[in-house]
Structure formats: C-alpha cells, structure tokens
Amino acid sequence: MGRAIIHLDMDAFFAAVEELRRPALKDKPVVVGGDGNPRRRGVVSTCNYEARKYGLHSAMPLITAYRLCPQAVFLPVDMALYERASNRIMSILREYTSLVEPLGLDEAFLDVSEVERPAPDIAVELKQRILDETKLTASVGVAPNKLLAKIASGMNKPDGLTIVNEGEIDNFLSELPVRTLWGVGPKTEARLEKIGVRTVGELRLRTLAELEEYFGKSWGRMLYDHSRGIDDSPVITHWEPKSISRDITFQWDVKQLPIIQETAEKLTRDLVEQLNQSGYQTRTITLRIRFQDFTTFTRSVSTKEPVTTLDQILPLALSLINRFDWTKKVRLVGVRFSNLKKSDG
Ligand code: TTP
Ligand code: MG
User: Fold this and answer.
1) Protein residues with CB under 6 Å of any ligand 1 atom
2) Which of 18, 19, 107, 202 is catalytic?
3) Whose atoms come closest to the Cα of 46: which ligand?
4) Model confidence over 49-104: pLDDT tens digits?
5) Which positions ≥6 away from 84 have C-beta within 8 Å?
6) Residue 323 three-state SS
7) pLDDT confidence of residue 239
8) 50 and which of 13, 29, 195, 339 could share a cystine (Cβ 3.0–4.6 Å)?
9) Is 107 an annotated catalytic residue?
10) Residues with beta carbon < 5 A to ion ligand 2?
11) What contacts 28, CB < 8 A, 6 or more positions away?
12) Residue 230 pLDDT > 90, yes or no?
C-alpha cells in the first residue's frame, strides 16, 4: 500500500493576510516588505497576484518594485499578524493527522496514509475549512510522496488542487523543467543543459551510471530517483534547530563602532531570550558583518561547556568585535548561536 502525502501552500500569504484587514486593497497591487517605505532599504517579502502581473516577486529590492509598479500599495512586514494566521491554519491541519511538518509559516506536509479517507477528499475539505475559518486560499498537492506533492501544490496556483496518482507519475513529470526537482538550482540546471537535458523526461533517459559519474554517487542517485518521482523521505514532525540567528541592516551605512556594538548587543539579547524560551543551550557564538561593498566576514567563539545566560554570552559576543578590521562602513550586523543542544530537564 503506497503512501498518501498532502502539501499545502498558502497563496501570496503575507499579502493575503494584509488584504483581510484592509478590504480596500482587494484588486490593487500589494507589496509587503521591509518597513513599507519603498524608498528605504529592504526587499519584497511577497506581493499579491495583481502585483506579480508587473513582474514583481519575492526578494526583489523594494526600490525596483517601486520603479516597476509605483501605484502598488507598499506595506511593512507585520510578522506577529502572519504568525497568528499561520497558527490557525496549522491547527486546522493537525485535526486531520498529527503527522504535520510545517515549513515556514505558510506551508506544510501532511502524511495521511493512515487516515481512513481518500487523500483527495481530505484535501478538498482542508481547503474549504481554511477558507471558511480564515478567508484565505491555499494551493494543495496530493501525491504518493513529498517530492511529488510539493511539485503538485505549485502547479495550479492560486487556489489550486492537483492530484498525482501512482500510475500518472511519469506523465506528470515528463514535460516539467529539471528546475522543478528538489535541489536542482541554477548550477545543476546549467550542467544538465550542457548534456542536453532540459526536462525531467530527458533526465529520465540517462542511466544511473552516467549520472553518478557526472554528479557524484549520492547526488547522481538522487537525480535518477527524483526524475522517476521516487522519494522516500518521511514527514518530519519536529525539527531540531541547528542554529538561531538575527541580523539588522542599517538604513544608512554606519562607521561608528559604538553603534555597531550596541546593535550586536541588542541582537544578542534577543537571541538569548529566544534560546531560553526554546530551552536550548549554545556553544558557538558568531558575529557577522557585511560592509558597504557587500563583502561579508564572520568571527566565531566556541565554549567548552554550553552557555545559556546573557552574562555568559554577551561578553563573548562583544569580544568578537575586536577581531574585525573596521576600515569600511558597515551595512549589516548579524549574530548567530550554533552548536545548539536541548537544556537538561
Ligand atoms: P511563498 O509560499 O514562497 O510565497 P507566497 O505565499 O507569498 O506566494 P505563493 O502564492 O506563490 O505561495 O512564501 C510564503 C511567505 O513567506 C510569503 O508570503 C512571504 C514570506 N517570504 C519572505 O519573507 N521572503 C521570501 O523570499 C519568500 C519567498 C517568502
Ligand atoms: Mg505560499
């Protein structure tokens, strides 16, 4: 008996949540990003589908978005609001199974293999429940594994529902560009193009030996499997964080060390609070500095025993400041705690 996996991805999530509290925004291009002022630094977190018609997309500098679509409504990111919407959506999902793997705020995998109902029925009902209870639309994919479910959910956005049955996998994948597969970024895409492979169907014609020789054993194997829609990865319900981090981009590049120090201190305080709330200890503290010219440097300090308190961590973080060469103005300051471990008890 095969598995039944659902992948759900909310449509234009931050923008859709903003439209709910400001109904006048409906049908207008809406951009959410930075502090909502397109003349200041920041990137587009997301934009609604109306704005996408003008070529706007996530990660585009706000200033570029403004040039392409000056009539758009620009709004600041209000993370607390999106988190509340996300929590409501995730709790609806958990009514169907405890096997829910959230990815960020607006996406999740569900393993409904053991649920006594056809997966497509569950998918239809999930979409309707989310719409009724939050007034938001989701796009959903249903398939025998995570790889295919995730590709399927992206096929008919927005408000889509795409079902891939066991017997349809080859057909479903054949014409898709290789980029659609997990982990195939611009580099792999370019290498594949060199050997005449553009679509998943074309990739499937290559032998395992050929792919392993070209891409190495494990990556070659993965491409071979994924081109056939084979993926055994489980739905993971709890991730252990590897690290936590925060950073701040200054509105104007900064030269004064006291400001940089103050910023590093604030970021460290925030992270210590997060560390304590989540019940973790850290052993490695990293300070990251991006200069005016975008060159980025990191300096780290590791402790023998895990540390948890501000008194322990702040002096370590601040000691790193002396290990940079401060000749250029600074654009961004970041702090990261890694080597995390659950505190005992
Ligand atoms: P996505 O699901 O990638 O995008 P989306 O929900 O806005 O649009 P789509 O309909 O295509 O799914 O990301 C979910 C949210 O995560 C998005 O609303 C904003 C945030 N986000 C960022 O903050 N930065 C980014 O670069 C991306 C891609 C998303
Ligand atoms: Mg989304």
Assistant:
1) 9-14, 45-46, 58-59, 104, 106-107, 157-158
2) 107
3) 1
4) 999 999 999 999 999 999 999 999 999 999 999 999 999 999 999 999 989 999 99
5) none
6) helix
7) 66
8) 29
9) yes
10) 9-10, 13, 106
11) 50, 71, 72, 73
12) yes
Classify residue 294 by its DSSP letter.
S
Return the structure tokens found at 302. 């590791």
pLDDT above 60 (res 341): yes
**Amino acid, res. 329:** K
Per-residue tokens: 256: 């004064």
Over 70: is that where the pLDDT of 269 sits? Answer: yes
- Say how many residues make up the chain: 345
Alpha carbon distance 152, 139 (integer Å): 9
Between CA 271 and CA 29 the distance in angstroms is 35
pLDDT in tens, 96-125: 998 999 999 999 999 999 899 999 999 999
Q: Are 292 and 332 in contact (CB under 8 A)?
A: no
Which pair of tokens denotes residue 249? 């981009």
Instruction: Name the closest-CA residue to atom 23, ligand 1.
Output: 45
Separation CA 45–CA 29 (nearest Å): 14
Tell me the three state secondary structure of residue 99: coil
What tokens appear for 138 in the block? 């989701």
Rounded average pLDDT over 230-249: 86
